[in-house]
Prior knowledge:
Radius of gyration: 20 Å
Largest sheet: 10 strands, mixed
Order of helices and strands: EHEHEHEEHEEEEHHEHHHHHHH
Number of helices: 13
Low-confidence stretches: 327-332, 334-342
Distance between the termini: 40 Å
Helix content: 40-55%
Number of strands: 10
Structural class: alpha/beta
Amino acid sequence: MALPNGQILLTFAIPCYNSAAYMDKCIDSLLEAGDDTEIILIDDGSTDRTPEIADSYAAKYPEKIRGIHQENGGHGEGVNQGLRHASGLFYKVVDSDDRLDKEALQRLLCRMREHAAENTTVDMYVCNYVYDHWDGSERKVMRYNNVFPEEKMITWDDTHRFLVTQYLMMHSVIYRTEFLRGCGITLPKHTFYVDNLYMYQPFPFVKTLYYMNLDLYLYFIGRADQSVTEQNVIKRIDQQLLVTRLMLDCHDLNQVKKQSRRLYSYMMHEMALMVCISSIFLYKSGTEENFRKAKDLWAYIKVKDKRTYRKLRYTTMCALMLFGRHFSVTVYSIVRKVFRFN
């Protein structure tokens, strides 16, 4: 898989919507990545100075940066658009309010270039991400060295068990571009929380993984308008439910189990997390309509696949639901204070 002269190694896609106040920090963190990388700025129908800033960067760095303007389609359509236009061997989504650590990025790129020169095919690279809180409090690093052997070419069968509070995020991974296109993923428009689908649908197609214990991705958290705040999740709960159902529909987990028990274990863990989060926020809303939606979600799972339903009901996270609404919401609140993930 050695790159021919002039081939791009890595495409960074930055979906931007009204990101004028902070997008420059994100872009600047990627500019020194190397001549074999590119940055695609996807302006998602912004109404502030985002289009102007994107065009100014593209004009200043024409060999490095491209700007794309689209009608508003949401974060998922920004990811789709970046993938359509990516020319890099690998594809990395970076949110416009986040950054990459420059030193960690250089170490990762060095290893990626070595693999390309050796014609080694890697479907997915994994690195750590860091909760970068707005108030400057102590940062929490989400590492995977207990799950993945470090700096070794592995398959899902070489992985170890994830902790209950541990899971992969869009921030954690870099996909091989043609692999991602080949698995057929298209994220829905005008929908939040599609990063969960991005981190679930491709996994059964991943044949080779490579983990580097680098604190690469700095995940900014704490802005009131972020989609992950408790208020916004409740307000957009129907979109959370849509993504959860799309995840339930995209794979037969019983077939995944035949492919790899380790992968099955992780995907069940991820599905339990989504169902648990959806249920808890439906409960936290306090409305009878949303209590009914929680029941409907579980009924949908039961009709779709009784074995998956039974498994989900008795996983560590979802088992909390058996103790009632108030207990599960209380446990969530405690975990939220400890990990400060929204």
